[in-house]
Amino acid sequence: MDSNAQPQSGQEVKPGAATPPVPELPTPQATNDQTPAQESPTNEAPTPANDQPQISSVNSFDEEPVMQWTAAEFLAHDKSTNWYLALIGGAVVLAALVYLLTKDKIATVVVLVAAVALGGVANRKPREVPYALFRDAIQIDQKIFDYAQFRSFSVGDEGHLATIALLPHKRFGQVKSLYFDPNDEAMIVDFIATHLPLERRSLDPIDTLMKKIRF
Fold it and tell me: Are residues 113 and 201 in the same domain?
């Protein structure tokens, strides 16, 4: 008789008889109802790096200049006492005309204040600032400008100083000017012409007026 045989229902188990093993029930596995969220792939393309970043400070620019020099930051004409007297007289006449035509005291005062401010600016002396030409940029004082910021350049002559005007792409963008010794004009113009086209630019009415009054 097999000692491992299980007793029938209602059958008496004799003392000392082998107890049949109790079958092991499978342990229920804990179910995790929370399925881990799968990372959905993003369709965003990586932001492309700017190959030619605009550099605004000369301190962060480590390229060696091709040529460099120092010159005035702007053209200044010597103004006599008669120049300032003419400015005052013109301002008084203009203010009187404004008052007679408009009877507006505020507009009259604005004309006089503008004349005083113009005289103060005219009396300011230019600083000597550094200029430099790099393979990919131009330095004016402590600022660095990419060639790509400009569409062309023009050349001017003011006697004791030659000047280059860098014309921006934006219609109302600010024109940047370089001043240098006329003896260096050919070398500087030839180098900038390898990056920007030379454009013959006529003076606008404001520039013509400032040149006539030697502002």
Answer: no
**pLDDT given for residue 210 in this prediction:** 62
184: domain CATH number is: 2.30.29.30
CA distance linking residue 110 with residue 101, whole number of Å: 15
**pLDDT mean across residues, the chain:** 76
Q: Return the bridge partners of 152, or none.
A: 167
Range with lowest mean pLDDT among 49-63, 159-173, 190-204: 49-63
Whether 17 is in a domain gets the answer no
Instruction: Give whichever of 5-14, 75-84, 150-159 has the largest mean pLDDT.
Output: 150-159
pTM (two decimals): 0.59
Count of beta carbons in the 10 Å neighbourhood of residue 131: 20
Write out the DSSP string of 71-134: EESS------HHHHHHHHHHHHHHHHHHHHHH--HHHHHHHHHHHHHHHHHHTPPPPEEEEEE-
Q: How many domains does the chain have?
A: 2
Same domain for 119 and 89: yes
**Angle, CA of 64, 69 and 70, to the nearest 5°:** 130
- Smallest CA-to-CA distance from 163 within 142, 184, 150, 177 is with 177
In whole angstroms, how far apart are CA 188 and each of 67, 75, 113, 183, 195?
A: 8, 18, 41, 10, 12
